[in-house]
Amino acid sequence: MTGPDLSDAAARAAYRHELRGVARAPRLLGYLSIFAAIGLWAWPQSGGPARLGPLSTESWGWLLLGFGWAMLLWVIVARTRHHKARAGGDEAAP
């Protein structure tokens, strides 16, 4: 890979758009998991069940929150690796 062209505003915008496209689906899954966790915490206060299967609704919320943050951290690592490979010209990195 060749290094990004950051000489003008349009090139920087194109590179920013490229970086946002890296690991897009996992990033959206992470955000959705975090918002679902908030919903699971609020559900019993609005009349929903206090338990879903073997765990409480709050526990499912904590599990989803942890999964969501793990996905977002993985996305940060993937984008950083992509940027380093693109900026440094390293052919071995994806």
Trace the largest sheet across and list its strands.
1-2
Mean pLDDT: 87
Most strands sheet: 2 strands, antiparallel
Instruction: Compute the number of helices.
Output: 3
Spans of at least 5 consecutive residues whose pLDDT stays below 50 are: none
- Beta strands, count: 2
SSE string, helix = H, strand = E? Answer: HHEEH
Instruction: Tell me the distance between the termini.
Output: 10 Å
Query: Helix coverage percent of residues?
Result: 55-70%
Describe the structure in brief.
The chain has helices at 9-21, 24-42, 57-88; strands at 51-52, 55-56.
Blueprint of the fold:
Layout: H1 9-21, H2 24-42, E1 51-52, E2 55-56, H3 57-88
Antiparallel strand pairs: 1-2
Annotation keywords:
mainly alpha; 94 residues; 4% strand; 3 helices; single chain
Question: How does this structure look, described?
Answer:
The protein has helices at 9-21, 24-42, 57-88; strands at residues 51-52, 55-56. With 94 residues, it is mainly α. It has a two-stranded antiparallel ribbon with strand order 1-2. α2 (24-42) runs antiparallel to α3. It is elongated. The model has no long low-confidence stretch (mean pLDDT 87).
